[in-house]
Design brief:
CATH topology of the largest domain: Aminopeptidase
Number of domains: 2
Strand content: 25-35%
Helix content: 25-40%
Number of strands: 11
CATH superfamily of the largest domain: Gcn5-related N-acetyltransferase (GNAT)
CATH architecture of the largest domain: 3-Layer(aba) Sandwich
Distance between the termini: 36 Å
Shape: globular
Structural class: alpha+beta
Radius of gyration: 18 Å
Length: 255
């Protein structure tokens, strides 16, 4: 089971990136060796992922991708996780002047063991995104929290997909928290979990995540997965998540 969860953490992310890459506002590469998605007029998502490179040709393969990045023909962000091949890719990227710029913990949970007595904040009014106004509020939160430009046409496309669910949380009259739930067989993945800075430390992200995972369990999904920052790990452990792997992003520019 641990092997399944380990692979599902990255697979959910990879499948989400692939879904985004098929939108006309995005450029993509999708072959047996490498995949990437790059926004034409936004910041997210843009990254290289799911590398399946030959260890014997690794240095050459990295240099070829490096040249594409330098020519602005590929995104400058390379995500490395448990499905990545070869296993020493991260170390090799460092040897080719990439920097490890973003560390996340790959976490998973059996949804039947979701801790339902977690520190839920009942003052948060949670709803699924159902219209353009809701989606605009969702976009505003995510853009402000992560300091990124989001492609609104991509969000509309994703909202039309049966395997993507958007959630927002309102505290009194202010929308303060947001997340996206991406569903693949048996597995529900949390993405873009965010709370506006002035409203943190009130368990809003935990409360919103708890609701989305309960909904996924009610729909028959068995496991929850996510990628968490060091600060986020503490939150998700309260729901019963445990760490299974590291997800590391490497950048040539170091940003």
């Amino acid at each position: 089971m641990s092997k399944f969860l380990l692979s599902s953490i990255e697979q959910n992310l990879n499948d989400f990136y692939l879904k985004c890459s098929r939108h006309p506002n995005f450029e993509s590469m999708d072959n047996d060796k490498l995949k990437w998605v790059r926004a034409k007029n936004a910041d997210w998502p843009s990254c290289i992922f799911h590398a399946n490179l030959n260890a014997f040709d690794l240095n050459l393969e990295i240099e070829q991708v490096k040249n594409l990045i330098q020519a602005n023909k590929a995104p400058d962000g390379w995500t490395v996780g448990p499905l990545t091949q070869p296993k020493n890719l991260g170390k090799s990227l460092l040897n080719h002047n990439f920097s490890d710029v973003f560390h996340q913990a790959g976490m998973a949970l059996d949804l039947s063991k979701l801790i339902r007595s977690a520190n839920i904040n009942t003052a948060l009014n949670i709803k699924k995104v159902e219209n353009e106004e809701d989606l605009s509020n969702w976009s505003n939160i995510v853009s402000a929290v992560f300091h990124i430009k989001v492609d609104d046409e991509l969000l509309e496309f994703l909202r039309s997909q049966s395997d993507v669910k958007f959630y927002i949380g309102r505290y009194y009259e202010q929308y303060v928290s947001a997340l996206l739930l991406h569903l693949i067989p048996e597995v529900a993945g949390l993405h873009a979990v965010s709370t506006l800075p002035d409203y943190r430390n009130q368990n809003f992200a935990l409360t919103l995540s708890h609701r989305a995972l309960l909904d996924a369990h009610d729909l028959g999904y068995k496991y929850g997965v996510l990628q968490a920052s060091s600060m986020g790990q503490f939150v998700y452990k309260k729901l019963g998540f445990r760490k299974y792997c590291d997800i590391i992003t490497y950048s040539l520019s170091g940003e």
